[in-house]
Amino acid sequence: MKQPIRKLFSYHDSVLHATAGHVVQEFPLQLIVNGREIATLIGSPHDLRFLVAGFLRLQNFVQKLSDFEMFSVCEEFGTANVRIKGELPERLKPVLTSGCGTGVSFSMPDTLPTSDHQQECRLIPPADIFSLMSHLTSHAEQYKSHGGIHSAAVGRQGELLLYAEDLGRHNTLDRIAGEALFKSIDLSDTMLVTSGRISTEMVAKAALLGVRLMASRTSPTDMAIKLCEQSGICLVGYVRGGKFTVYCHPERIEPYPDGAKLEGISAVILAGGASSRMGLNKALLKVGDTALIECVYHTLAAIFHEVLIVTNTPEEYDFIPCRKVADVYTGAGSIAGLHAGLSASCSERVFVTACDMPHLNSDLVRLLCNYALKADAVVPVNNEGLREPLHAVYATSILADIQQAIEHNDKSILNLLDRIRTTLVTNEVFCSIPDADRSFCNLNTPEEYASTT
Asked: How far is Cα 360 from Cα 452, in angstroms, rounded to an integer?
């Protein structure tokens, strides 16, 4: 069976880069023998009949092919239905194995705990991942007496809390959970690093402990990725040489971690709008090899810890590793996007811009963010004397004003600015910043786009 290609993110040079690659597949197969469900085999999805026949042979239930009276494997439903000669023992005694893929779980949870908003607001510096993996390596080298053993560790902010090793990689999590229980250590909001492949049973156990990031020196399985997506766990593989691959929730990783970033303020990119004058989604138009919205994202990610994209079609922007939020009020235009961004922000102030501004000036953005901390809005005025409401800073305290305006069918952000405490930053204030006015340039028509590219 051919492995599907997944969208991934590769971390190197201080930022996450969209990429794609294959992921090891993990397939659960319910095994029914003589009408009794005796096991769920978890393995690779190829040649499942060999897996079933070999398992039954090595359990000493069959010795030759003629011992099978019926043999049916349905990949669509993940079921193997087998009838064999003779009867199964009345009571089957399970053996708790140490094998990497055959550890014992009495049940897999139907739902997994999900992350809270506070976790979403705390981004993980890549240095913390590398640091904890380094701790794992040094402990493994110090305590292992021989090869062929797995190790795992949990920690916060790159510092190790607990370490465990065992023949089975899943057993290392049980050991960590048990030690934490004895020592009254809360493992919520921790990072977990492991020497082996991350599979479903490991994710299920990590999620129950409240782990927010799992990392390995090797790869996860496809089902592990799915479980991490559902539970809000950031999943990282191939941590080595200052690089790693992110398989889900890349928005949890801090981009440009070594930059001088503004504190207490987030950035929001509005990606809505019909793009009627352009005739297609202008956010995805390319400037060189980079989409317009990606240009905007990279500029803002170097300035702010948190960057959000407001969009009702998040799948269109899955190549950008940041959080996406939808409008609460659909069909209300830019003011609805402003409302959504302020509502979802982790900060009390937000710099808001449109997705079609590829020439954002970092110095001007920083000036606006630092200009008037007590204003409800800080809005620049361009060289034509016009306000730029989609290149401005807003306080989350105006959410009620925005909601009231939308409910009264007033969709004008300019009208909103007249009703709140707005500080206007005139051209005379920022004219010393080179090419500052170019920061307001947005691309609405094919002609404007052609002049930029």
From this structure: 13
Cα separation, 169 vs 205, whole angstroms:
12
Among residues 404, 380, 402, 403, the alpha carbon closest in space to that of 390 is found at: 380
DSSP secondary structure letters along 141-200: HHH-SSSS-EEEEEEETTEEEEEEEESSHHHHHHHHHHHHHHHT---TT-EEEESS-B-H
Q: Are 348 and 381 in contact (CB under 8 A)?
A: no
pLDDT digits over 322-340, tens only?
A: 999 999 998 888 999 999 9
What is the mean predicted confidence (pLDDT) over 360-376?
A: 90
What per-residue confidence (pLDDT) applies to 94? Answer: 57
Domains with residue ranges and CATH for the chain? 111-252 (3.40.140.10), 265-452 (3.90.550.10)
Element spanning 17, H or E: strand 15-22
Kindly report each contact of residues 143-149 with a partner whose C-beta sits within 8 Å and lies 24 or more positions away, as own/partner.
none
Q: In this structure, are residues 318 and 309 in contact, taking their beta carbons and an 8 Å threshold? A: no
**Res 106: pLDDT:** 42
